[in-house]
From TrEMBL:
Highest taxon, organism lineage: Bacteria
Main location: membrane
InterPro entries linked: CLS_N
Keywords: Cell membrane, Membrane, Transmembrane, Transmembrane helix
Residue runs in coiled coils: none
Pfam families associated with the record: PLDc_N
Protein name: Phospholipase_D-nuclease N-terminal
Mode of membrane association: Multi-pass membrane protein
GO CC annotations on file: plasma membrane
Cellular compartments annotated: Cell membrane
Regions that span the bilayer: 6-26, 38-56
Ranges where the Cardiolipin synthase N-terminal domain occurs: 17-58
Length: 73
């Protein structure tokens, strides 16, 4: 029974990681075709896609804070 909870926990973590990756991909400055490719890879091969993305995925986020007040330290 405990192994079932373990694998359920792993699945939840993997889904959250994939959602974070997809969000990061769509916020990048790459073209839409590249974003669709990364999204498809991560959805079709969740673990392998996450590993490949961590090595070769797009870097940088184009959208910054929503207001100047938000970015103050």
């Amino acid at each position: 029974m405990q192994t079932t909870y373990f694998w359920a926990g792993v699945a939840v973590i993997l889904v959250l990681l994939d959602l974070w990756i997809i969000n990061s991909v769509w916020r990048s400055s790459k073209i839409s075709r590249t974003k669709l490719g990364w999204t498809a890879l991560v959805i079709l091969l969740p673990f392998v896609g996450a590993v490949i993305w961590s090595i070769a995925g797009p870097r940088g986020v184009t959208k910054g804070p929503s207001s100047p007040e938000h970015s103050k330290g």
